[in-house]
């Protein structure tokens, strides 16, 4: 994926001047060896403010965009946290464990104690650093912590260099996707809202463009036997080209971009297609395209893209329940999940083809056809990518602003079950432990909209930490049985 940052971590050891600096340097060298090639060893050990300036210059020269401040001994909390405050990027604090009972006189570092003082000084300076659940360890243990920090840093860096292009106002019937954009600017995200007429003007100007044929060929090759409506590919290819050309001309100072586009009902009559397949293709390449002008949905998909770094996400409606009969006939496949743990995730056809089982196909949008082409063969409602979601571990995630401009988020890990949902669209049966209570006391009670970002893999640890680094105070998750949500009746 090219639309996400590459994280280059610099490791800076710190040392309190009344401790032997050689202890921190020896431990730093061992940590770098344990990490391998993905870190830069800063040779300046920070003992005072002059060292801070020198270390920052070294990190900049090396192209580091993330920092690990390593307490090889107790460490000077003033210079150590000044370094974190002045570094332009996400920062992690971690400390060295003592190594041997044979060397607890001159070789004792007291970094366990030093981390306490560092955390207090970080709060004084207003630095929201990443601190692991247990931030003290041997070189091998700390290297594993740094590996966990990489995707968190990727999320934070990516968000601060992201621009979201929006086309069209939110549909009247989908005010749920409408939210104030001010908190996005607080995060560092740029937002450029445009009229769908701007996109349509560009789309119209590209008719006959020589590049379209190559995109059509690429679409046909990707779809294979699933190319059920080859006649609409030219329109879809022109739309894809228009979006990429728009981004190329308007990306500006931002390094990364995503889209949140209006997609109905006038879209079909003017563009002559539904945009779902184009959305799926770009999302599959690391460029999320959220439908229904869902700006926070696009942001949530982009965060999932950065958190994974490997697989693209999708945006799904938390849509409908699983019928009792379907549950009973495939009960063994549900792995002990009760019916209320299950729901169907659905969208018209925006899920990348790599996330769908074999047999995914280009089809028409059934709901739009009912509205726009009720008595004719599908034409302007063609363009969905439909299929069944791959089975496997997944994470549901959304970052959302309230009407009062407060950021809220949720993270819930679960799985897509390998059972045919027997319906249309891009869809799958999803199991989340204690989903019924999560639905009521998080999704409903906290006013989250119907769109959920979904990424493959167990991404909860990364996402939870990233939200905390970004200052999101309310990060909800599915509580286990016996642990009540705020406001949940103990008598239910």
Short description:
37% of the residues lie in helices and 21% in strands.
Layout of strands and helices, then pairs:
Blueprint: E1 9-14, H1 21-35, E2 39-41, H2 49-61, E3 66-71, H3 77-86, E4 91-96, H4 111-124, E5 136-137, H5 139-160, E6 162-167, H6 182-187, E7 190-194, H7 196-205, H8 212-223, H9 233-250, E8 256-261, H10 266-271, H11 276-284, E9 289-291, H12 295-308, E10 314-320, H13 324-329, E11 342-347, E12 361-364, H14 366-372, E13 382-388, E14 392-401, E15 407-417, E16 426-431, H15 435-444, E17 451-456, H16 460-469, E18 474-477
Parallel strand pairs: 1-2, 1-3, 3-4, 4-5, 6-7, 6-8, 8-9, 13-16, 15-18
Antiparallel strand pairs: 10-11, 10-17, 11-16, 12-13, 14-15, 14-17, 15-16
Helix pairs in contact: 1-5, 2-3, 3-4, 5-12, 5-16, 8-9, 9-11
Describe this structure in words.
The chain has a 6-stranded antiparallel barrel with strand order 10-11-16-15-14-17. A 5-stranded parallel β-sheet has the order 2-1-3-4-5, with helices on both faces. A 4-stranded parallel β-sheet has the order 7-6-8-9, sandwiched between helices. The chain is globular, with a radius of gyration of 25 Å. The chain has helices spanning 21-35, 49-61, 77-86, 111-124, 139-160, 182-187, 196-205, 212-223, 233-250, 266-271, 276-284, 295-308, 324-329, 366-372, 435-444, 460-469, and strands at 9-14, 39-41, 66-71, 91-96, 136-137, 162-167, 190-194, 256-261, 289-291, 314-320, 342-347, 361-364, 382-388, 392-401, 407-417, 426-431, 451-456, 474-477. It is an alpha/beta fold and 492 residues long. It has 16 helices and 18 strands.
């Amino acid at each position: 994926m090219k639309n996400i940052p590459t994280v280059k971590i610099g490791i800076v050891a710190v040392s309190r001047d009344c401790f032997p600096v050689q202890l921190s340097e020896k431990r730093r060298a061992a940590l770098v060896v344990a990490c391998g090639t993905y870190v830069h060893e800063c040779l300046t050990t920070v003992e005072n403010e002059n060292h801070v300036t020198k270390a920052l210059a070294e990190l900049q020269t090396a192209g580091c965009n993330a920092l690990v401040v390593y307490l090889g001994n107790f460490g000077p909390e003033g210079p150590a946290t000044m370094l974190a405050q002045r570094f332009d990027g996400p920062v992690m604090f971690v400390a060295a464990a003592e190594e041997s009972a044979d060397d607890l006189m001159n070789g004792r570092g007291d970094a366990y104690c030093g981390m306490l003082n560092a955390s207090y000084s970080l709060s004084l300076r207003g630095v929201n650093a990443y601190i692991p659940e247990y931030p003290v360890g041997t070189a091998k243990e700390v290297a594993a912590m740094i590996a966990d920090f990489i995707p968190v840093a990727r999320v934070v860096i990516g968000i601060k260099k992201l621009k979201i292009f929006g086309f069209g106002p939110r549909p009247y019937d989908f005010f749920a996707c409408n939210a104030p954009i001010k908190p996005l600017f607080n995060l560092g995200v740029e937002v450029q809202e445009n009229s769908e007429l701007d996109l349509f003007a560009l789309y119209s100007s590209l008719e006959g463009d020589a590049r379209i044929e190559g995109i059509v060929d690429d679409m046909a090759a990707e779809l294979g036997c699933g190319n059920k409506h080859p006649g609409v590919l030219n329109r879809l290819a022109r739309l894809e080209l228009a979006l990429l050309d728009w981004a190329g001309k308007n990306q500006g100072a931002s390094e990364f971009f995503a889209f949140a586009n209006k997609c109905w009902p006038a879209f079909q009559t003017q563009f002559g297609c539904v945009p779902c397949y184009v959305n799926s293709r770009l999302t599959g390449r690391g460029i999320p395209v959220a439908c229904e002008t869902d700006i926070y949905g696009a942001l949530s998909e982009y965060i999932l893209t950065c958190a994974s770094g490997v697989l693209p996400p999708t945006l799904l409606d938390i849509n409908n329940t699983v019928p009792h009969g379907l549950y009973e006939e495939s009960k063994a496949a549900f792995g002990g999940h009760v019916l209320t743990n299950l729901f169907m995730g659905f969208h018209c056809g925006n899920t990348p083809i790599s996330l769908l089982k074999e047999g995914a196909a280009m089809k028409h949008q059934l709901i739009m056809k009912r509205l726009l082409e009720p008595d004719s063969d599908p034409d302007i409602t063609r363009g969905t990518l439909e299929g069944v979601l791959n089975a496997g571990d997944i994470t549901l995630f959304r970052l959302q602003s309230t009407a009062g401009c407060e950021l809220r988020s949720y993270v819930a890990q679960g799985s897509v079950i390998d059972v045919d949902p027997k319906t249309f669209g891009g869809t799958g049966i999803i199991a989340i432990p204690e989903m019924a209570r999560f639905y009521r006391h998080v999704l409903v009670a906290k006013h989250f909209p119907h769109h959920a970002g979904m990424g493959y893999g167990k991404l909860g640890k990364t996402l939870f930490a990233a939200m905390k680094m970004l200052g999101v105070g309310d990060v909800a998750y599915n509580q286990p049985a016996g642990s009540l949500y705020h406001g949940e009746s103990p008598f239910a």
